[in-house]
Amino acid sequence: MSSSRKLHLKSLMLSIAKGLLEEEEREREEERERYMAESIPPLSMPRTMQELQDLCREIHHNIDAVDEERYVLEMKVNKANKEIDDLKIKVQDLMGKFKKPVLKKVRMSADAMLKALLGSKHTVNLELRANLKQVKKEVKEEDKELRDVGDWRKNIEDKSGMDGRKKMFEAEA
Fold first, then answer.
1. Cβ(85)–Cβ(100) under 8 Å?
2. Closest by Cα among 41, 57, 38 to 49
3. For residues 165 and 47, what is the distance between their CA atoms, to the nearest angstrom?
4. For 1-11, what is each residue's pLDDT tens digit?
């Protein structure tokens, strides 16, 4: 398809979409006007003080009714949102995969951490290294022999030639 044909089709699609959006906007406005005409009677200006007070009472009563309706709808929405959250948690449980939140790395000593968790109650100084068990390293005999041998250049003369190899075999046997 040529680029001019693509451009022409694109402009046609945009013009159709623009017309549809205008139509939706007009329908929305008509619906709003229809609802307002049904819900709210035309306002007539009162001529006496008594008529004005009656109008204020009526408007106040209507405001209370609308507030009650808004509150009820808000509670329904909150309940639905809570149910949605519970269902999301159940779905995650069933899938067995949890997204771990990215935690900020904090450098804190054990004392500072306990102080933050326990507050002013924490007075014990915690030294982790003091509580560790001391383990002495056992030195193997082979390692001792290797250290005792010392510098390899001294031993190379002893091991050179057939006599040196004989000594090695005799030492192993």
1. no
2. 57
3. 132
4. 899 999 999 99
